[in-house]
């Protein structure tokens, strides 16, 4: 009787195949952490192959770096134009002419450009061919002086009421959210007032910010009278002992007289509820609008007497020079700059930082 039904060569081949398959399976298991589990019981943790530690989250770039990155478009545009100015020693008049062209091209504005050129000319007086480094330093100082730092006024009342206005879509509500976060971080009790009743979504948007940063919110239905919301907001602020109140208003074109009147009414009603309020009227300007920002600022200043400007979207413009014109021609300080859509993307304005960033310097 044949005990072995298949020829020994075939058995040998089969055994080899099984051995190879077993080997492969063992290798596969070794690669899979926890694969040594028996009957579903995992081996002790120490026996499980440890995953390499995930990379720590990338460190946040410094604030100055983020401003530089945000201003890179303005800087590149201006730098390209300035390359010729600083590239070689040139006769002073030719140099000032190129400088003028560069500044006007970056939306610095005619009067401010003239003023800056005056400073550079005075600093380089007596040099027929001033050294580029000297011109650059003079330019930087002139820009810095023209801008001035945005210093927040000391609060003289509680609640301190800030009315926020501007044309459509410039970043009012987002800036209010970011400002509320800053005030909250400083320990203030913050109340937001949804006086933009024009769009239902605007009230929701402010509500989301209020929740996110831990601020109180006063709101009515959409379509309600914005002055009535503002009035209720003031009463609530006093009752709840808020430190800071930020009043969001609907975007309005500065050329629409009826809407500008509505804004004046909101401001008046706030003053009726809390004498002396609003203590601040801040205009939010989109830096990408260039010279039109100046016209907007003029009209809003006439309507409300602005006390500060928040300049947003500096991360998306090649026209960062408009800040200079606004500061110089209207005398309204730029208090904050927006350099992105995130919570932390609002920074107090520093003229030195801005001038250096604009000129692409460290
Ligand atoms: N890149 C960038 N985007 C911004 C900045 N500030 C605001 N935004 C964006 O701009 C858009 C409009 O912002 P809102 O805050 O809704 O503007 P608003 O002025 O309240 O708009 P209305 O209420 O409709 O007039 C949103 O997509 C914001 O995320 C900024 O500094 N940089
Ligand atoms: Mg809004």
Number of strands: 8
Global morphology = elongated
| Beta-strand content estimate | 5-15%
Can you give the mean pLDDT?
81
Low-confidence stretches: 24-58
Distance between the termini: 95 Å
Kindly state the percentage of residues in helix: 40-55%
Strand arrangement across the biggest beta sheet: 3-2-4-1-5-6-7-8
Number of helices: 13
Q: What integer value in Å does the Rg equal?
A: 32 Å
Structural class: alpha/beta
Order of helices and strands: HHHHHHEHEHEHEHEHEHEEH
**Small-molecule components bound:** guanosine-5'-triphosphate, magnesium ion
Biggest sheet overview: 8 strands, mixed
Q: Which key phrases capture this entry?
A:
362 residues, alpha/beta, 13 helices, elongated, binds magnesium ion, binds guanosine-5'-triphosphate, 8-stranded mixed β-sheet
